[in-house]
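thought: fold this chain, then report.
action: predict
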Amino acid sequence: MRVRRLILLRHGQTEFNAGSRMQGQLDTVLSDLGRAQAEAAAEVLRKRHPLLIVSSDLWRAYDTATVLAEHNGLQVRVDTRLRETHLGDWQGLTHDEVDATAPGARLAWRDDARWAPHGGESRIDVAERSVPLVQELVAGEPEWGRADHADQPVVLVAHGGLIAALTAALLRLPVENWPALGGMANASWTQLSGYSGESDAGSDSDQDDFTAVRWRLDVWNASAQVASDVL
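observation:
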């Protein structure tokens, strides 16, 4: 039995977060509080000795990832598939502005993983572009989950919407149940464990069989403030 630990870390706060403004794929940066949040998360997660760190290319995620990487002497890999949900016409607008122009639309968006703002992505779209990254990591990182690297996680640093969509897809939840995964706080994280029946050495066919991995949710929306209770 091989067990792969996967941590999905949300970026620290930005001024858009503080002002309830919708970012999507706009390339915003961390606020002073966001940098402090990233440092606090890194102080906890560095003790897990990450095997590797992969980040969205958007600055708010990349800078959060860099703080953790510096604590562990790692280089951050960048993958655009970890970008936040594209919010189309909503990007840059406050919640109140969206509600004024499209009453009820944000509720529909939160309650239906198939729904997307005009010009944007649905959560299903986001999962379809991000799940292949995890599949590639399962196939391409033979040390992940091996006995001599037991419990060393792969850390993906990304965004709240992407983390929710990717988690729901890995857990194979019915699409109707995806909204059950609520919002993530800034610089909080989720942990999943992927169980597969391959031997510790693993065969090539085992390593490539992503469909044989069964993911379980260990932690949702953990933070530095409650880490001692969940790690």
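thought: worth noting. The beta strands are 2-10, 52-55, 76-78, 154-158, 189-196, 214-222.
final: tokens above.
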